[in-house]
Amino acid sequence: MIIRKLTLNGYRNHDNTTVDFAPHLNLITGPNGSGKTSLIDAIHYLCMSRSFVASSDRYVVNHDSKYFMINGHFEGEIRKEFKIGCSYSRGEGKKIFVNDSPLDRFSDLIGMVPVVVLSPEDLKLTSEGPIERRSFLDGMISQISTRYLRHLIDYRRIRKQRNKLLQEHNGPLSLLRTYLEPWDKQLVYTGSAIIEKRAEILEKFKEYLLFQYQSITGLDVKPSLTYQTIAPGLKTFDEIRDEFDKQIRGNFDKEAEREQTMIGPHRDEVVFYLDDIELRNFGSQGQHRLFSMALKMAQLFYYSDQLDDRPIMLLDDVFGNLDQQKTDIITETLTKHSGQTFITSASERSFDETRFQNSSENSWYTVSEGNVKLKY
Questions:
Q1: What are the φ and ψ backbone dihedral angles of 240, each rounded to 5 degrees?
Q2: What stretch(es) of the chain map to CATH 3.40.50.300?
Q3: For the chain, which terminus, N or C, has the lower number of CB atoms within 10 Å?
Q4: For residue 187, what pLDDT band results from cuts at 50, 70 and 90?
Q5: Cβ atoms within 10 Å, residue 67
Q6: 1-114+307-376 is a CATH 3.40.50.300 domain
Q7: Taking 90 as the threshold, does the pLDDT of residue 91 lie above it?
Q8: The domain at 122-299 falls in which architecture?
Q9: Taking 90 as the threshold, does the pLDDT of residue 62 lie above it?
Q10: Backbone angles phi, psi at 231, to 5 degrees
Q11: DSSP state for residue 145 in the 8-state scheme
């Protein structure tokens, strides 16, 4: 999958910008705050219906505008040519269009253009709490499995309704148990499907992580992960469902007391290791940085093997803290990968100009105050 053309209106510091991209490697350089990240953030927006930089749609609207509009022209193996557009205004909210037809559900966009983003924020994946790792896992799987995404949406809805019942009920516990029963059945079914899929994907993903970490670092250190859930070691849906049902029944009194759902995949954890050392608690800052990079590179190549269309790779200012050797390794790996890649950098020194000179596959752009120019 590639994006051929991107048009931005009122998006962050781009008033009116149109860029034609190369099909393989796209390097975007310029000073901090010039608008480099905004370009690839807009691509992410068209793929995932949200920014990877801003926490809210309203924060990406240009300060001189009341709305933003993004349009992208894409090409792929399944869909040969198509357009995705997104508009947002403070009065009307967000709208997404595919070939000028509005999408009823934003979730229908997920997976249409698979995308992987690597940014400094990815340090949170290894250094902060389990919600970061669950979010990464859910986002990764949702782009390759619409069924998983639908289960995830249903599970969140069911848990919200179940929690509401736990919080608002003030009658006998026997009556609460009766009211919870239909919600419990739905929770167990969708939750078990989520756990089953997470375990399946993570088992395959381990090998990609191992290869990418050792390729980037050149070290004979083995990265690994452990999936901590309510049904460790259980692989079939029926086994997981039976264990989930057993635990949801056994924790009824505790959940009634605390007025919240305490059992399920929303409490899962993924623990990362380097050899036998738990990364989150004992890893150095450099190890965290390299592990998070390996995670995203592993995601890229896992997608490439699983999907008919190659994913789009977005790297936002990730080379600043790397030595030249690791920068060269990652750049060379991405050059050999057949998909489309975007790299932003405040410095030009780390990159070989010959990759871009007289090339129909690669392009180098410079950005200054929201203005984009083709260098090579």
A1: -65, -40
A2: 1-114+307-376
A3: C
A4: very high
A5: 15
A6: yes
A7: no
A8: Up-down Bundle (1.20)
A9: no
A10: -130, 60
A11: -
Residue 58: both structure tokens together: 């309203």
pLDDT on residue 376: 93
pLDDT at position 298 is 97
Grade residue 92 by pLDDT with cuts at 50, 70 and 90: confident
Note if the pTM is more than 0.85.
Answer: yes
55: which 2 tokens?
A: 């926490």
Contacts 24+ apart (CB under 8 A), 356-362: 356/25, 356/27, 359/22, 360/22, 361/22, 361/23, 361/24, 361/25, 362/22, 362/24, 362/25, 362/26, 362/27
Sign of the C-alpha dihedral computed for residues 328, 333, 336 and 340 taken in this order: negative
Using CA atoms, how far apart are residues 295 and 112, in angstroms rounded to an integer? Answer: 22
Span(s) in the chain for CATH 1.20.1050.90: 122-299
- Residue 177 has what pLDDT? 95
Structure tokens at 353: 């100009």
Q: Is the confidence at residue 234, as pLDDT, over 90?
A: no
For residue 182, which amino acid is it? P
A 10 A CB-CB count for 316 gives 23
Element (H, E) at 313: strand 312-316
3 state DSSP class of 161: helix
Q: What is the DSSP string of 50-110?
A: S-SS-SSGGGGB-TT-SEEEEEEEEE-SSSSEEEEEEEEETTTEEEEEETTEEPS-GGGGT
